[in-house]
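Predict the holo structure. Ligand: pyridoxal-5'-phosphate.
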Amino acid sequence: MTDSLHPETLAVRAGQRRSQFGEHAEALYLTSSFVFDSAAQAAARFSGEEEGMVYARFSNPTVSMMQERLAALECAEACIATASGMSAILSTVMALLKAGDHVVASRSIFGATQQLFGTILPRFGVDTSFVAGSHVEAFRGALRPNTKLMFLETPSNPLTEVFDIAALADIAHAHGALLAVDNCFCTPVLQRPLMLGADLVIHSATKYLDGQGRVLGGAVCGRKALTEEVFKFLRTAGPTISPFNAWVILKGLETLKIRVEAQSAGALELARRLEANPNVARVFYPGLASHPQHTLAMRQQASGGGIVSFEVRGGRAEAWRVVDNCKLLSITANLGDVKTTITHPASTTHGRISAEARAEAGIGEGLLRVAVGLEAVDDIEADLLRGLGRP
Ligand SMILES: Cc1ncc(COP(=O)(O)O)c(C=O)c1O
């Protein structure tokens, strides 16, 4: 049924399984195990001969509903939900890579993802080359004979660099490697990487998919042949999403489109106003004509997204002054919430990476990242201007 339906319809209808009670809203199944009619059925379920629920480390109807709905939105054959965005990334690499393999990753990825690739995976024989900037030739140049995976975020966090998914997919595929895209910033509402040639889409569902800052969750979407490997890892290792969190995210998906479109419209307006402020040295927002990859962004995204980063003149002291004068905006590193959040990346999300790596990634001491929520733009701007000064 899903092929002919629009995304907004899929967001509220796809994946729903009704129980014998005929509930209208999706049910939350809080149970760690499932019962069988007979010993023979138990055996058939465990072996996979018979489809059905077994044990909540790897099967739960609420989780299945969330997976199917997100898969429909990402135009993916299948989706595997995980406990968090980081466990989605960990499960992907554990499922698809082995000792001796090599990864080419963008330098501009989330701090914990950099730590995973840069410090944890090498202990298991998987090395990563980090590529600075978004030039596709730099990614081609970093390939080695044993490169099996290319990994990026677009737009990146926090500088909103945009990466050409279609071109990078071609480069990865010509080399026999897979392309995985962290689609956390855009969500399927604004960008569908699988349609542009990527093999896997990763989500921190903690962000826009939940949308109201309540629960952690993650997901890996792609071809069944790939997600099946991720499932096998999850079944054995257990980085499983709780049914409650899956239920919150499932219901969050229903309002994803209207939230993300409104947040993106608010972010564009805020970005324009910040660009006109003399105390702001630079604004990073893909929806602005001044963004270096504006044309590419408008080709592969429906709009600029909800994240605006900007460089305050005067470095860390002035940036912290803006943060400390906020009375409305929440000082927190989370993003994708309906409540606007502000963070100073150099001392929070990217504080654990070395100063050299931060400098190489272009994350300056005056940089602030605002994840625009659903408040009036006038109120968000007024809160920032308290510390920033009026134009
Ligand atoms: C782009 C991006 N990817 C992945 C993650 C990790 O997700 P989680 O916190 O759900 O583990 C984050 C978290 O901030 C993120 O911003």
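Residues 29 and 61 are 7 Å apart (CA to CA). The chain is about 40% helix and 15% strand.
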